[in-house]
Amino acid sequence: MAESDGxxxxxxxxxxxxLAGAGALAGCTDGxxxxxxxxxxxxxxxxxxxxxxxxxxxxxxxxxxRLINESANTLDPVATVLTTEAVKVAQMxxxxxxxxHGSADVTNAIAESVxxxxxxxVYTFSxxxxxxxxxxxxxxxxxxxxxWERLAGSSNSTSDYVLLGDLGVEHETDDEGNYVPGSLAxxxxxxxxxxxxxxSPYYAGIDIMADSxxxxxxxxxxGDIDGYDGExxxxxxxxxxxxxxxxxxENWSPDNEASVxxxxxxxxxxxxxxxxxxxxxxxxNAQFNYAMNRNVDAFPxxxxxxxxxxxxxxxxxxxxxxxxxxxxLQNDETADYLRIAGLSTSFMLFNTNSVIExxxxxxxxxMNHEELADDAYxxxxxxxxxxxxxxxxxxxxxxxEEHARENYPYGYNExxxxxxxxxxxxxxxxxxxxxxxxxxxxxxxxxxxxxGNLRDxxxxxxxxxxxxxxxxxxxxxxxxxxxRDSGLGSWGMAWADPMNVLALLYPPNTQTTNNEGVEAPxxxxxxxxxxxASQRAREAWETMQNNKRDTEEDRQARADAIRKLEEANWxxxxxxxxxxxxNERFSYDWVDMPLFGQLGALGKYSDVEIDTDAQxx
Length: 617
Hints:
Elements: H1 3-16, E1 27-29, H2 47-52, E2 64-69, H3 83-92, E3 97-98, E4 107-108, E5 111-116, E6 122-127, H4 141-153, H5 160-167, E7 186-190, E8 193-197, H6 205-209, H7 234-239, E9 247-253, E10 257-262, E11 275-280, H8 284-292, E12 298-299, E13 311-316, E14 322-326, E15 335-341, E16 344-350, H9 357-366, H10 369-376, E17 381-383, H11 397-407, H12 417-426, E18 435-441, H13 445-459, E19 463-469, H14 472-481, E20 486-492, H15 499-502, H16 532-545, H17 552-572, E21 575-587, E22 591-592, E23 609-610
Parallel strand pairs: 2-11, 18-19
Antiparallel strand pairs: 1-20, 3-4, 5-6, 6-8, 7-8, 9-10, 10-11, 12-21, 13-14, 14-15, 15-21, 16-20, 16-21, 17-21, 22-23
Helix pairs in contact: 1-5, 4-5, 9-12, 16-17
């Protein structure tokens, strides 16, 4: 990563004050699934409030897909950082290309075709000629230039680093490394042809262009970049956007509900349903009760209510999706069930400036990854040892298992308290004089269980672990400032490239703001910069960045670098990966929803089908 790319990532985090949720954008969450972030400024409805309203808003003659969602800050595609926002954006906006239902395959959307130059740096998109936005404007090449210029240069953009850094579209920067407006190498060749030039070839380039931040807006709809006055005020657009997708905006009350309706003039296949409605409920118990009252068609089940014995898998398809049923539920219904290993990873992080190396390694020794997956996560997580998900490991899942089994230094699928105790005694600690540090997480029973088990195990290794909790925004403030000793976290990937998650282990991305010369937040607060292993990690990351072509030579260079970077992290235990969360969906049998892939359920709902005779009113 170039220094300017690192700056763009840091600017993204500084702008949002938080990290992205899994699915829509690459980002960090804290893993406390039973208590969501509170920085959104919402009031959590009580269970009574959630269950009193049995009929979501909408006309009786409409076919409505009824869902649960948590609150959101914005509906501007370039400003979204949360899955709750991205799932709505996905219905209202289209990009040039897309990944239907979170699958690995990219298909055309507004683009009719794409040609890539022999050297892999120039993408030429030919646009469909029958695309109109929700305000009636025709979508032309100039709309693409405008939309991507907003992504790069708008002060409201939180994803400029994806375009300028990860994808690497050619552009100019000023003396401070900031993007120079209007310098983006995205050109309207003619009315329906767009040419995009990258600074170097990238094998995952088209995958990144399918990300939700790359969607196309009507040209000039808002005037937050040079050269455009704007047809709408920004506040109006971000709360009632005008898009290009199969559904158009109907309503959004951030603390209550949101809805979209089918767009009559959509260029693609007409949606099967008339409407999508989201009921906003933050508390998992309220969500579950609302679902048990049959007020929604698809819903989550929190860990506290989940029983793995109720899962019946009837089919596993060729990409590993498990398809079956879950039940009986508390209301005696049986839900349709879908599960697939997602592109996300769970870990324990350390501020290496405040937690000594022997203590970090002691945690690695006592942590049984398989037990965590089966017990704390009730089998909803696959045990792991690499930040890189198994499906993206060089050689595939079996190669990942073999590498971990043969090389992980702290015991494979076991808890080795004796080795942890010896390590701490060699460091000068004893039962009478234990080492002390703090773990701080968001509230939630899974986090509490993991932290409590670690505390009990580490007490036998002369470590006194203090457990505290904080709301998400407070926790991030502490971590970014360098005041969080350790904590549990997770990272969701937006495209299938190990670099998307291994950016957390690039040492310059880990420096907290309590270090001299560091003003903006890190990706993750490790302060992993001054060791031999961190230097090897830096070199491995730079090797990956310099070998991004789709050639055997570059693939081998990236594979070697991935292994070196992961092993460097093992050596210092800056992050301890312990598993990979699954993507799951529970839905009633009156709704037929398309299967989603590894990237999750952020696809469009156009082809959902509902048996309205069976769906409760």
